Amino acid sequence: MRKLKNLFLSACYLIGLLLTPHANAALQIGDTAPSFSLQDQHQKMVSLEDQLGKWVVLYFYPKNDTPGCTTEACSFRDNINHLIAQQAVILGVSVDSVASHKDFSEKFKLPFSLLADENGKVAAQYDAILNLGVVKFARRHSFIIDPTGKIARIYRNVDPQKHVADILKDLKQLQAAQ
Predict the structure, then answer these.
(1) Are 51 and 58 in contact, with CB atoms under 8 Å apart?
(2) Which residue segments constitute the domains of the chain, with CATH numbers given?
(3) The pLDDT of residue 20
(4) Tens digits of per-residue pLDDT, 17-40?
(5) From 105, 107, 115, 127, which residue has the greatest number of CB atoms within 10 Å?
């Protein structure tokens, strides 16, 4: 039975890779970041427009309370003072529900917004959706968005253990270049 389940999930994954549209794969550094408005773990609407004037770290992740996603979220949490010192706002996005985000945020004491993109539309705008047919996941992609709303850095398929260090280094470089 377990082999059948693994075979089914593998088939869904491959079908998802083939069927996932890549219309937004052309997002590049310098492009205007696609706008969005999503509910966070506190049922508050958070929009990209509300963040204008700030550096935004927009990170997409597959699923709450899984090993890689927990590592990444806790790394953002553990480095929050460094990120705030760089005038950065952290926004995590997955296709999980508001309730799931609330539980995840409380369990790991996450001091930043987790946004519920339950239908995957925002993740798709950022080419960060993996559609497996029966289920969707956000890909582990991140973006630094500058205070004018332009994409300043793009990270695809990040390593959750090293990602925040890369973000901090790049924020310093980007801000020094202004």
Answers:
(1) no
(2) 2-176 (3.40.30.10)
(3) 43
(4) 444 444 445 799 999 999 999 999
(5) 115
Task: Give the CA distances from residue 134 to residues 13, 23, 122, 125, 127, in Å, rounded to whole numbers and listed in that order.
Answer: 10, 21, 19, 20, 19
Q: Looking at the chain, how many residues does it have?
A: 178
Q: Which of 69, 124, 145, 158 is catalytic?
A: 69
- For 131-169, the pLDDT digits (tens) are 888 899 999 999 999 999 999 999 999 999 999 999 999
Name the nearest CA neighbour of 32 among 153, 150, 146.
Answer: 150
Question: Could you tell me the pTM of the whole model?
Answer: 0.85
74 burial class (0-12, 13-18, 19+ CB within 10 angstroms)?
middle
138 residue type, one letter: A
Residue position matching structure tokens 């508050």? 44
How buried is 51 (Cβ within 10 angstroms: 0-12 exposed, 13-18 middle, 19+ buried)?
middle
